[in-house]
Amino acid sequence: MSAPKGTNVTFEDLETPAPLVDLAIVDANLKRMQDYCDSHGIRLRPHIKTHKSIAMAKRQLALGAHGITCQKLGEAEVMADAGIDDILISYPLVGKAKRLAALAARVKMTVAIDSEQALTTAAEAAASAGHTIGVLVEFDSGAKRTGVVRVEDALALARKIAETPHLTFAGLMTYPANENTVAFVNAARAAFDDAGIAIPMVSGGGTPDAFSVHELGVIDELRVGTYIYNDRMMIGAGHASLADCAFDVIATVVSRPEENRAIIDAGSKSLTSDPAGKGGPGHGLIRAYPDTVIDRLSEEHGMVDLTHSTAKPEIGEKLRIVPNHVCPVTNLHDAIWVEADGEISEWPVDARGLTR
Amino acid sequence: MSAPKGTNVTFEDLETPAPLVDLAIVDANLKRMQDYCDSHGIRLRPHIKTHKSIAMAKRQLALGAHGITCQKLGEAEVMADAGIDDILISYPLVGKAKRLAALAARVKMTVAIDSEQALTTAAEAAASAGHTIGVLVEFDSGAKRTGVVRVEDALALARKIAETPHLTFAGLMTYPANENTVAFVNAARAAFDDAGIAIPMVSGGGTPDAFSVHELGVIDELRVGTYIYNDRMMIGAGHASLADCAFDVIATVVSRPEENRAIIDAGSKSLTSDPAGKGGPGHGLIRAYPDTVIDRLSEEHGMVDLTHSTAKPEIGEKLRIVPNHVCPVTNLHDAIWVEADGEISEWPVDARGLTR
Asked: Where's the D-serine dehydratase-like domain (chains A, B) (predicted)?
């Protein structure tokens, strides 16, 4: 797999704050998930929201992924431009039919809906494109986010999809995949059977419990994003170990005003304010000083409490920091540095900031 | 003041999520702060970290601002490229002398330091550029961020600055300006007098208490950023009212899975996870539905609790949302939409993502 070309730098020359990705860990994470899915007969459809990178998406496809998942049209447009031709938008599109039509005219599109308004968007887009769009009905498995909460609503939407020209009912979708998923799917199967509507497949998402979705027995397709890089949240969730975390933010100590306080040049504009949950306290883990805590952030400052660390970093020292939640961190940076075979080169974050 | 040209759109056509700025409120906020500073003989040096926009910086300068403040070299480079010729980097630069030298060779540069390492960077840059760099010594007024904590350390650094070729001791700097600032400055004046070193000026920062800094009696220069747009934090701090908030994120309701839950298409990748502090609960204020609470965010979803609102937004409805903390929100978006005289046009966020 060829990599995007970028200026090569050494770690010493890297200007901070800078995201640095270990490609060997990425590849191991990708392979582990693909092998898992293959061994259980589950189709893997990686979510690109984590990396927003054409090159990373192509690595996932080269290993056997069955298309990709995007959250927003802007992400899908970038990936379609790059030649990726099977895209699920796992998000209800409302009133953006023209852009969806343009995508459907050139690549295989699937969308998720949970309302008649989102169904109308898909119907308008498919009619305008003159191409079929697959439509999943999203249901709520407890996240209380998007997704219908009642089986009868899922059935009513599926029926309307099936009746709409150029739309195909592609199945059911949820996030996350869990015990509630099983209960909903089983109830849905009974109701859909009675109505004479087949459920082609069930798509479930979420890295934290990815490696046990086969036990649920109802998941045909897995949508996961964070697994490519992992982060402190994934460590806290038991999905990954520190050795599986591929994405660090490199920061420099710029001040040591007191014995037990260091200031780094990465704040909320580099690390985000997202907490790590069970992944630990503070705003990221400093690999070389695991007993320190990045206890406060302002926009460009990270305040590091050194009280419980006998080793104290010096001004000018570069630190590798595992972020709490890598997905919004990627979205802050126009490019990442990728370390492979002892070389460091710059890769674009192609879909950065494309939230529309 | 001419505005950058961009495609004009109507509010109805605006694709969401989208940052929308009311230029009349911006101008009122800028004028209010400039008038305040003028009336108290304080020099205003606006911090561009909030807007990261060349056009906005030029509006501030046109009203009488005395140069600008940047937090990072990348911001300063963009502003210097645009012809802004008096820039303070209110942040300790460590090991980036070459880029600072390139700036000092073409514009009037001032930097803040709090360590010998940062002093060395400034000295190397000034020597390499062959141009004088002004150096402020940052002290800690209680934020426990950067800044020396002892007067004797400030004095030692000032002495070294004065002894270094091409460096000028430009004064003392702190954030925020408060009662501790007064105590430190008074103690410093006594110690510096004894040492025969003049303190040319004192620079203080922070929008929340900006309108009372004259009462401190020691602030010569004011660095403020958030005042241009304001946000829920500034409302909570008593600096602004809702009518002074110029920057909204426009989002669309994309799902209404239950009577009392709406989902909007703005999550942490559009609004950030920053809390509002005393500005109120949740992740932003929906202007038209002030009794709702955006109680949870995922990356592209905002979950809105409608329980305490008799009016409930419908799917497809566009909502104006006042963000909790506008500075990191700006940094998520490559462009803002600016509403002026009934027209909406796109302005670039020129220094977005420039954290190095």
From this structure: 246-339
